[in-house]
Task: inverse folding
């Protein structure tokens, strides 16, 4: 016995399901839920860490630096037959902390726009050879940024992660709820001495028969018998008059 997802049942109640099949369904959906929950946690944690670094970068010490590379990079992705292109400003810079030369490529911890115009504006603002102010992490001088600080765009990865967790948890709750109803209906029918398989087979036959009858329109009944005899005869017009000839009249021959 299986739970027929996507197929509308002829009854208002859920399909029946054995406890063994119910456990398999719950385990499968639990596995999918665990994957999506882990992905959501990853996005949320990364978002929190990036937000924390962005907030702390406002108070980082600064040193002078020089832009060594500035160009627009593009990335194409195809989804459902549609190809989209995202653009990013790739900027690299050199700086020095305590006499040690370092290299960085992080412009900001904020979530930046991926449009071509925004990337072009960033590249124009940081041409190669320009002197810039570099903010670096005093605990890890190799972590540096050109535009310190945060804004509300840092909340986007956190929101995406939390939404993924909430959505997959809601779907899992719906699946478990339907499975429990199906198992309970199976137990109720078995307790009454009714074979659920026979009920579903009869329901399938009834549904298929109704679908076939609605798909083929009935042919109009042919008229026969008295109905055909009572139809008025077609009029053939006025009777044709034929002339009569009399041989005994004068001038007849």
Result:
């Amino acid at each position: 016995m299986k739970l027929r997802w996507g197929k509308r049942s002829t009854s208002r109640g859920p399909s029946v399901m054995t406890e063994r099949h119910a456990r398999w369904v719950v385990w499968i959906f639990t596995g999918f839920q665990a994957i999506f929950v882990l992905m959501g946690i990853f996005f949320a944690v990364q978002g929190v860490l990036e937000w924390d670094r962005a907030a702390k970068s406002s108070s980082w010490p600064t040193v002078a630096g020089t832009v060594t590379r500035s160009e627009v990079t593009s990335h194409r992705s195809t989804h459902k037959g549609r190809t989209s292109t995202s653009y990013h400003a790739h900027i690299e810079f050199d700086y020095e902390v305590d006499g040690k030369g370092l290299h960085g490529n992080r412009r900001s911890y904020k979530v930046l726009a991926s449009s071509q115009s925004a990337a072009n504006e960033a590249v124009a603002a940081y041409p190669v050879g320009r002197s810039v102010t570099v903010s670096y992490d005093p605990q890890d001088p190799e972590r540096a940024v050109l535009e310190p600080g945060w804004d509300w765009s840092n909340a986007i990865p956190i929101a995406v992660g939390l939404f993924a967790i909430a959505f997959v948890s809601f779907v899992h709750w719906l699946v478990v709820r339907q499975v429990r109803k199906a198992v309970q209906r199976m137990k109720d029918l078995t307790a009454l001495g009714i074979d659920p398989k026979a009920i579903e087979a009869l329901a399938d036959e009834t549904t298929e028969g109704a679908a076939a009858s609605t798909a083929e329109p009935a042919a109009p009944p042919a008229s026969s018998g008295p109905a055909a005899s009572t139809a008025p005869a077609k009029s053939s017009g006025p009777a044709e008059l034929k002339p009569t000839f009399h041989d005994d009249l004068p001038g007849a021959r």
